[in-house]
């Protein structure tokens, strides 16, 4: 995946939600967007056949668990081939504007989900990023706790019990952005039909993807917020004095400023700023969704929550003096020290310079709440993590893997936390009830009062959604090109393997034929092979001399009646046969033996075989009839 800047596609109309017609679908492969089935996991039981990781039960739909998703199979046809999808709204009560959403999974248990659309490009079936109605900036249908109820336009939020949170559907990655949140019920107020001992409270702020949804904003270092009860700012669960409190009817302005996004180092393959997706399309209730691992919380960020200053990664200590059968002497996974020099050192936590967050209460600026925010990019993996990832690759693991790179969805999201029956309404702009100064940064840093006629240096959050979707479609275009290249490589590899297999088959066939031919040549030697001469028994000890009845053998002699040199000695003395040599046999010089002139060299009482003279050749008659019994 290249990290070079890709100009965004032309903006689609506000009424339509599909990407431009020329925006290809995302790629398969390492980005996990192909029709892929996953192998069974050793930690989870799987049904027969390929299956994907399970979706956590959705307790927000009457306690009915959501069925586990199934991996999409090649050739499957989904009912949601359109490019716009809308959840099924279930009102919490008759006539209520607040609803729960059905047919949509929620991000829990380390997994996150977002809609996918089926697309085929150049014969390659892939999936693309699609939108959900309404196609504008709002709360995310998937990226929220199921206890947070919403209105159909996605701008109204209602809490249920305890602190539950929700993120909006577009992050801030760079630039200056502003939005408003109106508190309809908060600050400790109780509704008329509420039977809870405590009132309703609201926390508002900005959070990253790693911030949990089942807790309030400011719970850890991944989010920054402000409390309604005291007006305190809070992060890492540590409230600090900040501004004045707010309650029902107040309008809270949220401002964030981030520096330009850092470009990835092309010479560093482990730079987290590289863009790379790790997602798998799954089938959930006959609808396609992308499933991806949520970015995990780093131990370096968790260590910031330790008030004692001790390492939070120390090994457990057995309760008795005896060695435990289950707890071994594990090294401490904390900071290296004299007692633990081999401990993995904590990685540095980079920050975004000149970044800041500020809040407004009914148009009154409360000042800078946080500055030099932690960078939203994942921490660089250490050597141990890289070796572990390589080992998993060698073993052929096809399960989800943690993504150490930016997948295009990182950033700071508007993060709303509601306690009990708290109720708020979002206003992403462009018209605000309390417009902020044109230059909020200049106002916060004390650069002087800004005139109303000065150009605005910030943007309303309503403009961020369309920009974010264009970024996703640009990444889809990159993935589609990668899919084509990988398809060509895969086809070439399959062809090379087929050619190699065919070559091995031909080699085996040639060896088999050669072995069979050698066996036939030994069992049936050719007639014109001169190796079957006088020294045939020497060349082929396992093959006897040929019979004169089948092979006429003539030996050249120097004079009539003399024994041919190196002639074979007959095993038996044949009896004389009148008539001479058999008719139809020829000597080596082509002469017919019937035309031979001469008399037998020896008497028929001689024990030697008859010798017939034909010029310089002598016929040796060694037929069975001429042998003595």
TrEMBL record:
Compositional bias of kind Polar residues: 536-545
Record field: compositional bias (Basic and acidic residues): 392-404, 489-501
Organism expressing this protein natively: Hohenbuehelia grisea
CDD domains (UniProt xref): SPRY_Ash2
Region of interest (Disordered), ranges: 1-74, 308-348, 380-405, 489-546, 559-608
Keyword match Electron transport: no
InterPro entries reported for this sequence: ASH2 (IPR037353), B30.2/SPRY (IPR001870), B30.2/SPRY_sf (IPR043136), ConA-like_dom_sf (IPR013320), SPRY_dom (IPR003877)
Family assignment from sequence similarity: Belongs to the cclA family.
SUPFAM superfamilies: Concanavalin A-like lectins/glucanases (SSF49899)
Domain (B30.2/SPRY): residue spans on this chain: 117-319
Taxonomic path: Eukaryota, Fungi, Dikarya, Basidiomycota, Agaricomycotina
Protein name, UniProt field: B30.2/SPRY domain-containing protein
Record keywords, A-Z: Nucleus
Keyword Nucleus included in the entry's annotation: yes
Pfam family, one: SPRY
Residue ranges, compositional bias (Basic residues): 502-517
Gene3D superfamilies found in the cross-reference section: 2.60.120.920
Subcellular location: Nucleus
């Amino acid at each position: 995946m290249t990290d070079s800047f890709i100009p965004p596609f032309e903006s689609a109309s506000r009424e339509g939600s599909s990407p431009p017609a020329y925006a290809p679908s995302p790629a398969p492969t390492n980005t996990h967007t192909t029709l892929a089935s996953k192998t069974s996991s050793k930690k989870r039981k799987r049904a027969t056949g390929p299956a994907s990781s399970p979706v956590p039960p959705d307790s927000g739909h009457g306690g009915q668990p959501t069925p586990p998703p199934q991996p999409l199979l090649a050739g499957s046809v989904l009912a949601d081939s359109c490019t716009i999808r809308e959840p099924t709204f279930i009102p919490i009560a008759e006539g209520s504007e607040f609803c729960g959403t059905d047919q949509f999974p929620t991000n829990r248990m380390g997994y996150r989900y977002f809609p996918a659309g089926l697309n085929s490009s150049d014969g390659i079936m892939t999936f693309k990023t699609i939108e959900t109605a309404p196609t504008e900036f709002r709360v995310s249908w998937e990226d929220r706790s199921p206890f947070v109820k919403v209105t159909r336009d996605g701008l109204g939020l209602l809490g249920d019990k305890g602190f539950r949170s929700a993120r909006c559907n577009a992050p801030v990655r760079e630039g200056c952005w502003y939005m408003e949140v109106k508190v309809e019920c908060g600050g400790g107020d109780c509704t008329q039909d509420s039977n809870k001992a405590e009132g309703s409270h609201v926390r508002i702020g900005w959070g990253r993807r790693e911030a949990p949804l089942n807790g309030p904003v400011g719970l850890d270092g991944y989010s920054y917020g402000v409390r309604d009860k005291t007006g305190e700012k809070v992060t890492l669960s540590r409230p600090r004095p900040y501004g004045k409190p707010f309650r029902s009817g107040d309008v809270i302005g949220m401002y964030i400023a981030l520096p330009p996004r850092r470009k990835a180092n092309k010479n560093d393959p482990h730079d987290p700023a590289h863009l790379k997706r790790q997602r798998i399309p799954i089938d959930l209730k006959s609808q396609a969704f992308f499933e991806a691992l949520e970015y995990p919380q780093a131990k370096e960020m968790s260590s910031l929550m330790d008030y004692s200053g001790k390492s939070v990664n120390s090994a457990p200590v057995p309760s008795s003096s005896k060695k435990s059968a289950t707890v071994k002497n594990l090294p401490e996974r904390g900071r290296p020290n004299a007692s633990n020099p081999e401990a993995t050192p904590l990685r540095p936590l980079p920050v975004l310079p000149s970044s800041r967050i500020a809040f407004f209460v009914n148009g009154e600026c409360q000042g800078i709440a946080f500055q030099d925010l932690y960078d939203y990019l994942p921490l660089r993996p250490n050597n141990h993590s890289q070796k572990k990832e390589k080992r998993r690759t060698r073993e052929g693991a096809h399960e989800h893997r943690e993504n150490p790179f930016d997948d295009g969805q990182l950033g700071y999201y508007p993060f709303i936390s509601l306690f009990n029956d708290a109720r708020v309404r979002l206003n992403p702009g462009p018209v605000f009830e309390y417009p902020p100064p044109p230059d909020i940064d200049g106002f916060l840093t004390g650069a002087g009062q800004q005139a109303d006629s000065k150009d605005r240096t910030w943007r309303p959050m309503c403009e961020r959604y369309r920009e974010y979707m264009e970024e996703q479609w640009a990444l889809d275009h990159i993935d589609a090109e990668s899919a084509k290249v990988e398809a060509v490589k895969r086809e070439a590899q399959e062809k090379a393997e087929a050619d190699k297999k065919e070559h091995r088959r031909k080699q085996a066939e040639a060896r088999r034929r050669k072995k069979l031919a050698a066996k036939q040549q030994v069992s049936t030697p050719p007639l014109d092979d001169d190796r079957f001469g006088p020294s045939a028994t020497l060349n082929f000890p396992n093959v006897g001399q040929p019979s004169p009845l089948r092979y006429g053998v003539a030996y050249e002699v120097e004079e009539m009646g003399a024994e041919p040199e190196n002639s074979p000695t007959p095993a038996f003395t044949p009896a004389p046969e009148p008539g001479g040599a058999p008719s139809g046999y020829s000597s080596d010089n082509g002469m017919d033996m019937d035309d031979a002139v001469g008399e037998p060299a020896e008497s028929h009482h001689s024990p030697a075989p008859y010798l017939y003279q034909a010029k310089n050749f002598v016929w040796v008659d060694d037929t069975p009839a001429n042998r003595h019994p």
